[in-house]
Amino acid sequence: MRTEGCGGVCTDGRPAVRGARILAVLLALGAAPLAAHAQAHAHAHAQVTVMAPPAASASARPGVVVYAGLAEAVAAAAPGSTIRIAAGTYRGPTVEVRTPGLSIIGEGWPTLDGEGQRELLVVRADDVTVRGLRFVNTGVSHMQDRAALRVIESARCRILENRFRDALFAIYLQKSSGCEVRGNEIIGASRDETSNGNGIHLWYSPHTRVLDNRIRGQRDGIYFEFSRGSEARGNRSEGNRRYGLHFMFSDSCRYERNTFRANGAGVAVMYSKGVTMVGNGFLDAKGSAAYGLLLKEITDGALTGNRFAGNSTGLYLEGASRLSIADNDFVENGWAVRLMADAEDSRFVGNLFRGNGFDVATNSRTLRSSFDGNWWDAYRGYDLDRDGAGDVPHRPVRLFALVVEKHPEALILLRAPVSAVLDGAERVFPVLTPALADPRPLMRAPR
Amino acid sequence: MNALVLVLRAGVRDLARNRWLLAYAIVLGAIAESLFFFGGTGNQVLLSLLNATLLLVPLVALVFGTMHVYASREFVELLLAQPLPRRAVFAGLYLGLALPLAAAFVVGLGVPLALHAASSDAPWRALWYLACAGVLLTAAFAGIAMAIALRTDDRLRGMAVALGAWFVLTIGYDAAVLALVSAFGDWPLERPLLGLMLGNPVDVARVLVLTALDAAALLGYTGALFRRAFGTALGPVLAIAALMLWAVVPYLFARRRFLRRDF
Hints:
- The complex is a heterodimer of chains A (447) and B (263).
- Chain A is mainly beta.
- Chain A has a domain at 316-447.
- Chain A is 11% helix and 34% strand.
- In chain A, the strands form four sheets. Chain A has a 13-stranded parallel beta sheet, covered by helices on one side. Chain A has a 13-stranded parallel beta sheet with strand order 4-7-10-13-16-19-22-25-28-31-34-37-40, with no helix packed on it. In chain A, strands 5-8-11-14-17-20-23-26-29-32-35-38 form a twelve-stranded parallel beta sheet.
- Chain A is elongated.
- Chain B is mostly helical.
- Chain B has one domain.
- Chain B contains twelve helices and no strands.
- Chain B is globular and about 60 Å long.
- The A-B interface holds A 284, 286-288, 290, 310-313, 332-335, 354-355, 357-358, 377, 403, 406-422 and B 41, 43-44, 47, 50-51, 54-55, 170-171, 174-175, 177-178, 181-182, 185, 189-190, 193-194, 197, 203, 206-207, 210, 213-223, 226-227.
């Protein structure tokens, strides 16, 4: 890997292994004058920069300056230069980047080790790129949100293809806008909620793109707060202790093709307007307080083509209004959709309901959401005029579901013949279940 | 022991020629096969099979069992005239009824499932539980049938009692539980409910399959006891143990009746 035409500075860390430590001494002798030289001329010359430890040969190359420590290299680097970090383990105080336009690039997965004590890298400058580094072991702090990589009040940072292990918080963006966080792999220590932090944490960081990351074992996989206009695509967030995605006060955000699986409490999206979710998978969130997707105080959003499978509750709507919920698959959930009474004016169109314990449950007899043209495996009607839609409306709220809503213990009678008898009676004399009905249930599964 | 094998062999040979038993296996097989044929996915087929098992297995075991006991009355009298121990005769009679019934169940469900095993994404754990539940239910209801038939000499009455028992255990019991839940909904019912479920073999069988099939829904309930029962291996283990007990207890009841009875 060589880069032509960038301002040159080089770096090294303090290597862990003994052989490398000897090397570091040699470098300390040789590198100081070179460093001074590079600082003087960095902005004047376009240079290639490589770095130590194995830099006895590298230092001989023109334009390459070798440093004995990452912190020194970052401090010395001119704006816009590239710092290449060689393989090895670097243990030092937290490195602060204050120079705009720096690219910090690891070669052969150099490891920044916090030794359970500290944050590893803090960026306080615009246009900084961090790529190919391994961040490990920040340790747990109950006093601060300790993050392996923190970006503070900086614009357009790019955090690409790094690896994080045992970090309290892995990537923490605060008051930074227009950043890109792509292709990182974050594996937390899966500690319990109180001594665990979030994988990718955005706080007041608008217009951030979070793409193709993999996160597991953190508290919340991805956390957005006050970060409007951001988007998350192609991420995989699974096995986190609390939420796969936790999202608040962030308007006009977009989620596409993410997979959230087996997270302790599923996914929660709250207090936001204009959220769009397309083609995501909300899977295997099991537990009494676990939701494939919990929507609370959400208005004017759209859920299209998502898959909800194997959750205790697939989709939970509370105080959500004017949502368009179309072409989603609800498969083998305990409750596919739970609509609270204050969910208004949402439209369910073209969704598929198959193998759920309950398709729709609600705590109210009057519902102001509508269902039209969905496919229900429980539908028993017919289609005499052959227009593809059943001639008899389908009432998705079962009487037994109402009983369970009122007396949760009755759940133990799920799939018992008597619950079918109840539903059959209700079908013949519909008096108790809400007027909620799908007037044109599909005869054939849309997918 | 010899007497047991003798009676068992006679019973099995008798039942193997029985057309009703064959019909039972074929009906079960046809249900399973048609479910696959009409495009069911693994879980849907399993659900329907669960319903078929919960309703059909007790019904067939009860009706067929009482009929069988009445039909073999003369054979039993003949056996008892021989120097054979009564316990062995009874064991042979019971196994001669329960084993062919269980075999018909396993074959009836097993053949279509084996045929579709490769093509379907079958939930194997739930299927395994379903097979356990079906066999143990057969054992339990064969015992209940014998107890009923040995209690009354009147065939019609015996049959009526058997049908009544079927209705009570499959629907009436749960309806009563549901009424209880509605009446005492404000009280902590978790523990009594689990106890009540163990008190009916049909419910135990259903809950056993649910732990594999509907864990997502069951775990949605907030109670700690349900959580422990359905979130861990405790639930299935407890259910299988209870079903085994349910297979043994009616057997002992019927045997007591058989030993004391004056034929």
